[in-house]
Amino acid sequence: MLPPTGVKPSAFVRRRGQSLLRHLFQLLRTNGVAVEAGVLAGVHTEGDGHELAEEHHRDVVIGAVLLVDGILEHFNVLLAQWARRRDYAVVAFFQRRRNPEQRYGSGTTYRYDAVAENQNIFVFYKLFWRTPVCFRYKGRRSSKDGRFRSKQRTELGARNMSTLVPPHGGGELKLLLAPEAERADELARAENLKKVSMSSREVSDVLMMSQGAYTPLEGFMGEADWRGVCADMKLSNGVFWPIPITLSADLELADSIGEGEEVALVDEESGRVMAVMQVEEKYVIDREFECQHVYTTTDTEHPGVQKVMEQRAVNLGGPVSVLDEGEFPAMFGDLYVRPSESRAMFAEKGWSSVAAFQTRNPMHRSHEHLAKIAVEVTDGVFIHQVLGKLKAGDIPADVRTKAIQAMIDNYFVAGTVIQAGYPIEMRYAGPREALIHALIRQNYGCSHLIVGRDHAGVGDYYGPFDAQHIFDRLPDGALITQPLKIDITFYCQKCHGMATAKTCPHGKEDQIQVSGTEQRRMLSEGEDVPMEFSRPEVIAVLREYYASLND
User: Active site residue: 97, 201, 360, 535, which one?
Assistant: First the structure.
């Protein structure tokens, strides 16, 4: 929009500039960039600002943005995305600031000296209708005329734009994996530390921390965090977190560890040193308190409750530095995708809204239907399967991967789905686990989590839609990633296709309820699996697996 006729640029800036900056700041914060301050400066009548305006034959709105822990390398993409939605072209100076405490006034010379000397960031908005262009001005001012040199122009097309949800907690991903160059020395040093054995669940948690999937956690929880998470789903600093992430040790070993002492964390199954932890806290938990709040039951038949009851006597809390990702990267190859990698994949495809589909089973027709609904309302679907330890009778990950890929290759439009895996171990906590699944997917860059019937449940401990309803009780701002709630799906013989109670008017006598449990029974007993249950290409993969069990 051009300034109204007869209105001086400075008056236009005063009236419109603050609104422009507010929109920009909101976009930056949404994408994990902390904005410390914004200063509206007005249109220059001399110096660089005047020359810049003349060069592009337009008035210029100037805003100064101070960034704290910002994502500077993505700043131009975010800015261009913001501008594209409002049909503004954008001119931006990109410099890093040196002094985070300094504040800047509105004087022309002082402000531009700040750019050159203190390396702050300044943003210029060109106000006219056209395709947005982002200019980067780099380098120092010329000693001859004071203007910036080494100008690079980059046009950013809408197809490559990707504005993903920020990591949980508002900052950057917290990757706790030590730099590769340091790991060998740290592993050698860890051999001389006291060893704390970890269960498979604790190993899984360490791997999730290593890649930033548990952002913003920096290690295993202390007592205040444990209690706050159990009772109120909050860390002690107020950040939302629904399930405790804890490490336990035998009483004798815990008594021997001093406050502030470093210990080596060892996979009890492989004997492999996985991480080093500085023990800041030791505490004893009320197991029934945790189980009742997190799992809504203390029944030891519940697999999650059973794990809690089997924990050792004392919990250890403190920051963790991960030294080894175990066998997962080698075992799963390209399937093992870390949050930074998934975000890069989404950005490359230009996806901004991404729906995650959590699975620990091969996908049958109901799962396919859920994913296709998500494809219709988002940019793409992230089929994200569990690679951690499962319960007896579950299909191994390599077989699941092959079966899911057969479905993707034959029944989805190319480029609408990404299949990946992550090293979590299921807790089967139903509603609470749905929340942490959404939180983790936020760290992976997903805007939505598909939540269907009995998400992450087991047995009859939870109602079919409890995992959907719990999202409605969260306080505002607890999670950015939202649930994509979908009703129970079935095959309707009159509709001749998959449907839900919201889309199909026919009675139960026309419905075929698609069940993974029933499908596994059919396969294990050698029965034919109806086409209404699963695709023939998927069944072929699963039949081959079940046949191998009888060899």
Answer: 360
Q: Cβ distance 548 to 524 under 8 Å?
A: no
Q: Which of 193, 199, 203, 322 is nearest to 262 (CA)?
A: 193
Burial class (CB in 10 A: 0-12, 13-18, 19+), 395: buried
Q: How many other β-carbons are positioned within 10 Å of the β-carbon of residue 304?
A: 24
360 as an active site residue: the answer is yes
Structure tokens belonging to residue 93: 């100076």
Kindly state the average pLDDT of the residues 36-56: 35
CA pair distance 383, 465, nearest whole angstrom: 21
Q: What is the pLDDT of residues 61-94, one digit of tens each?
A: 333 333 333 333 344 444 445 444 444 443 333 3
d(CA 449, CA 428): 17
Bridge partners (DSSP) listed for residue 420: 384
Calculate mean pLDDT across residues 319-336. 94
361 is catalytic: yes
Q: In terms of DSSP H, where are the helices of 473-528?
A: 516-524
The full set of domains in the chain, from first to last, is: 9-160 (no CATH), 180-326 (3.10.400.10), 332-549 (3.40.50.620)
Catalytic residue among 31, 120, 315, 361: 361
Long-range contact list for 249-258, CB < 8 A, 24+ apart? 249/196, 249/312, 249/313, 249/314, 249/315, 249/316, 250/312, 250/313, 250/314, 251/312, 251/313, 251/314, 253/194, 253/196, 254/282, 254/313, 254/314, 254/316, 256/194, 257/194, 257/282, 257/316
Q: Which of 115, 122, 135 is nearest to 55 (CA)?
A: 135
The answer to whether 209 touches 246, Cβ cutoff 8 Å, is no
Closest CA to 135 of 83, 184, 98, 179: 83
In this structure, which long-range contacts are made by residues 81-87, counting pairs with CB atoms below 8 Å and at least 24 apart in sequence?
Answer: 81/27, 81/161, 81/162, 81/163, 81/352, 82/23, 82/24, 82/27, 83/125, 83/132, 83/134, 84/131, 84/132, 84/156, 84/158, 84/161, 86/23, 87/129, 87/130, 87/132
> What's the mean pLDDT in 242-247?
98
Calculate helix-pair angle for 339-349, 431-444, nearest 10 degrees: 60
Alpha-carbon distance of 356 to 446, in angstroms, equals 6
How far from the centroid of its chain's Cα atoms is residue 356's Cα?
Answer: 10
pTM of the shown model: 0.72
Encoded tokens for 492 = 């309707």
Judged on CB neighbours under 10 Å (0-12, 13-18, 19+), 537 is middle
Q: What percent of the chain has pLDDT over 70?
A: 70
Q: Strands, DSSP E only, in 240-395?
A: 247-249, 262-267, 273-278, 281-283, 314-322, 354-359, 380-386
* Number of residues in the chain: 551
C-alpha distances in Å from residue 4, one per residue of 8, 9, 13, 22, 437: 9, 9, 11, 21, 50
List Cα–Cα distances, 83 to 18, 133, 180, 410, in angstroms: 15, 9, 39, 38
